[in-house]
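Below is how a single chain appears once it has passed through the pipeline. First comes the sequence as given, then the structure the pipeline wrote out for it. We keep one example in the README because the format questions we get most often are answered faster by looking than by reading.
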Amino acid sequence: MSKLVKWGLLSILVIALLIKVSLWLSVRSIMNDAVQQLSPFMQITYRGITSSFDGRVGVEGIKVHVPMLRDEFQIEHAELKFKGLMDLLSFKERLGEGKFPEQMAVNIKGLALEVHGPFMEMLKQPPKGKDLQTALASVACGDANTIGVDQLLAMGYRTLETDAQLSYLYQPGAQTLTFNMTADTRDMGEYRVSLSLANMSEKPGDLRVNPPRVSMVTVELNDNQYQRKINSYCAGKMGQKDEVYLQTALDHLDASLRAQRIALDPKLLEALGGYFKDPQALRVELSPTEGMTWDGLQFFEPKDVIAMLRPVLLINQQSVEPLAFSWVDPRVARNPEPDELVRAEAVEQVQATPQYEFVSVASLPDYAGKRLQFITYDGVYYQGILHKVESGKAFLSVQFGTGSAEMFLRLEKIDKVRVLF
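Resulting structure:
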């Protein structure tokens, strides 16, 4: 009996050792293949490989050098983690079948990037186009409109060091995928991103034909030291005291958004000013309605955009309400007087309000070339010039700024139609 136990324990030990060696060889093979395939573009070296029976494998001391850019970055430790050993062992098998692994997490410790290097120069290049992202990144900072490498160096940043965790969980039965990322950059802050996808196929090749739907997006910033440094640095560049610069920064944000036709509700703008003053925590949640398309939101009424995105905003753990905005003409200067602004909007509304009458959906072909308002059964509002009715669809020409865009609505989804006479 004792010999049986002894041989049993020895067999378990041998199997464990074989698994350990197999994991080590597998990771080394993957790393060596990556090093060889990427050798024409970059030089990759690493110090060692780690593995564990709880479903973890890792690489230590990674250094990536790109001769073309004359720059490099380093990772102290990168680790791939699964729920258990069996998921780890089936990882390559699922990839070979062209399927997503059901669960995976990546932990990165000590990602170091030199601020003065070409990598950061590329990341911090001034944006060429003008869009919402550009407006949010714009700053009032003397002769600089954005924070680039020179400004980072002047603020005291030399090396950006980041610890990050990325994970996702795929549920084949429900066809849902949840992605989470946390990144903590020293002397900058902690950033969290969460994304949930519905109608997610387990085969990457199916995504083009049947793309998934975004059901939830969450972005969170905690202990935003970066914003504090920007406030202090740019206040000095503007020759202003910190308290005065906070209002300057808020006015600049308002002007940048208005240049993109977006005017935030005064209470919302005031809440963002409070965050500039004390950037402890900011959390934005979006729960888009089913069937919503991200392209073309600018063609909807503001209240409909809010209804479709269903946003939630928390600043320093306090909920901000109301979340409202309006579309404005960027060519019209903003009147700084609140009372006069209200009166101007009221007059404009009275003068510009068109006279519409309801007509039946079946009679739409008779109103080609007319300006119409559509309300769908989902309660979504559209407005534009009817181009034609064909194959059960109403084709519209929608005005946007100085140009126009084409879209269509299926007739069976239209509840009410109003025509401008």
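The longest strand covers residues 159-171.

See the next section for the split statistics.
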